[in-house]
Structures are given as structure tokens and as C-alpha cells.
Amino acid sequence: MSNTTRYDVTDWPVGDAFDDVGHVLNDMIAHLKRRQEEGAPGGGKPGAVIHIPPGDYRLRTQVVIDVSFLRIEGAGHGFASSSIRFNVPETQWGRLHELWPGGSRILVDLPRGDGPDVEPTDGAAFVIARDGEPRLSAIEFVGFCIDGLHFEPDGSELHPENTYTNGKTGIYAATANDSVRVNGMGFVYLEHALVMHHADALSIHDNFIAECGSCVELRGWGQASKITDNLIGAGFAGHSIYAENHGGLLVSANNVFPRGASSVHLRGVTRSSVTANRLHSFSPGMVVLDGASAENLVAANHFLRDQEPWTPFIGIGNGRDDEYGLLRVEGDGNSLIANHFSAVVAAEDVRPTGAKPVIIRIVSGTGNYVASTHVVARDRRGQARDDCFAAQVDALLSARAADDLPVIAVLVDSASVRNTVLDAGTVAQLAVDTAANAVRPTPEVGA
Predict the structure, then answer these.
(1) Which residue of 54, 69, 81, 428 sits 20 to 30 Å from the alpha carbon of 343, by its own alpha carbon?
(2) How far, in Å, CA of 24 to CA of 394, rounded?
């Protein structure tokens, strides 16, 4: 048997990688498992690297990874905006330099299952799963693009390519795993880009994950993982970053694009950090800590809430009104420190009509600490445009004079007590019961 530790999908003797790279990858994994059964002189299990050269590789067969110590690598993440292309009239496609994402590109061409028997893994290009002990470990995805190709009609009036639904997933970890790495990847036009169950020491770093229904989902439970230095942007009904029942999670230095229903949503997450992220949203509920999330640090993040400037998505939101809060907390002992908020919303578009938008809202729990918050709120509506790039850049760079927008910087609901709020808003900007919470308003100029 060959003792190779490096595979290339373009020269494997079984299958045709360009017609069905899934078939080829599964055969390589089977070969690696046979080699691992032979063992190594030191008693270890040899690993392997599978290389995907630049090119387009159709995936008609789901890849099941049930072996540890495997690295699948390409020659570039290959991300390019499919959303922009699909919203350009087809008559203009001829003048575009590229029509599709590129690099080392996997074209997910799995059939969409329907009916009650469909499993969550059915539409996944890559499934990580193995029963028994120990957990799968040291699986790496590096430097290639997973492309869902098209979205599909969902019964709404939206253009089919703007629905963010197609039943496809990029990578789905169904069983417990340790030290999985997803680095330098591109994910585009997938209903779910990355879904990880029961992850320990997971690293999601330096990826481009955008134009997907949901981007990063940490499900079940997990610990000591990190989501760092990514460019991320989900669809209007999905999560950009979501984690549940995790401890010791680090979410840092991510640039989160608008349009997702949330930027960061933590449910039942404890003793974790959300720090130094740039977060942008067209809707309230940018960062949500719920499900009794406790003892988390949310610090030094830049929040920008403005309004959708790109014509195809005008009027589409996440269904939350402006009293929901940009940063919403349900839990105990969380620290919300030194965050900057820019809220740029036309007063006439605030919902409910006549309300003041809420920046930080503590809904329930005790012992939360809010300090050194800076809120810049402007009453201004951007100009809607058909050119996505120009519209969003113009909106971002427009900091010209506008009227102040009255806001509630911190709202503490009656169900939450014994919180501390320091220098997080003027007296007029705080809606906090001073008998049940410790409060020191921000001094006002000239007061």
C-alpha cells in the first residue's frame, strides 16, 4: 500500500475531481484510514494533507470525515461577491471581469432533500462525524472556497438569489471534536456556512464568510474556542456569529458586515469575551446575550447601526423595533465596558413611531456592569443606490453635520436589579431605577 502522506485531488487514480471532488476525497480518506490502521513505529496514527489546486471542482457526493489528523488545503479562499453579480442585470454580465468566486473552489451540487426525513447534515458538503472515543481531533480546512452557487425561491417576493435559502451547508460537525481549525477559507451562497457541535479548542480564524444565510454557528455546547480576525456577514434572517452553551469563548477582531439578523448572539454562554470587534448592522439586536449568559466581557467594540442603502434590500430587516436595544443582555455579572456606538437613523423611521432608540438594554439578571460608553446618535437617512459598493462606502464615510437623534443610552428593565451603570449616558439618556441599581451619569457640558 502506498505510504503517501500528501494527496492531490487532480492526480488521484480513482474518480474525476472536476466532475465530483466528493467521490475523490472520500476515497482518499478511506486510503488514509487503512494506513492509520497499520499504525506507525512509535504507535501514533499518521496524518495527511490533501491539496486542492486552483480550479473549479463540482461536489456531487458528500464528504464524510471520520478520521483525525487531516488537513485539506487549497491555494486561495477565492471569495467574490455573488450577491452583487446576481443583482446586476444579466444583460450587463458580459462586462464583468469575473462571474463566479474562484481560487480553489468547491461547487456544492448536492440535491436538496424535502420532507420530514431530511437530516440537518443532508445538504452539507463536508460532515465531521464519528461515534465512540476519543473525539475527532486536528482536522483542518485551509485556503479554499465553498460555494453554494445559487439561492432558491422561498415563497416571498424577493429575487430568488436574495433569499439566503438553499438547504446547503459548507462544513457541519455533528459529533464532538477537538482542535479543529478553519483558517483562510471562503464561504459564499450557503444557507449555513459553518455549523459546529460540541467543539473544544476550535479555531475559526482569518476567513471570509459572507453572503450566507448564517455564517458561524457553535451548537450544543463547547469550550475554549475562538472566532478571530474574520470578515463575516450573514443574511437578514440569520446569524453572523452564534454560540450556545459555550464557556471560555473568544470573539475578537472580527469585521462583521451588516444585513445579518444579529452580529453576535450568545445564548447560555459564560465567562467569555467579545472584544475589539467592528460591528455593523441595519437592524437593532446587534449583540445579544440571552439564555442566562453570565460573567462575559463585552469591551472595546465599535457598533455602527445605520440604514440599508442598497436598493434590492430596502425595507428588509430582522423584525425588531428600536426599543429592543443594540446591545441586549439577559444574564448576571456581565461587563459592558468602553464600547463605542454610532447610531445613524432617520428619526421618522424609528419604530415604534415617536420612540427613542435604545442602545444598551439590560432585560433581566443582576450584577451587570456598564461603564465608559460613548454614544454618537445622528438623525440622518442615507441615499439609496443601485450600486452596492458605492452605496455602502458613501454611507460609511458620511459623517457630515446632522441633527442629534435622542436616544436612551442605557435601559434597565424592572426585572433586573443591582446593576452598576457608570459614565454610560447623561441623566436624560438613562432609564434606570436608581433605587435598585448604582448609577453615575455622564457629566454634561455646561451643566
Answers:
(1) 81
(2) 46
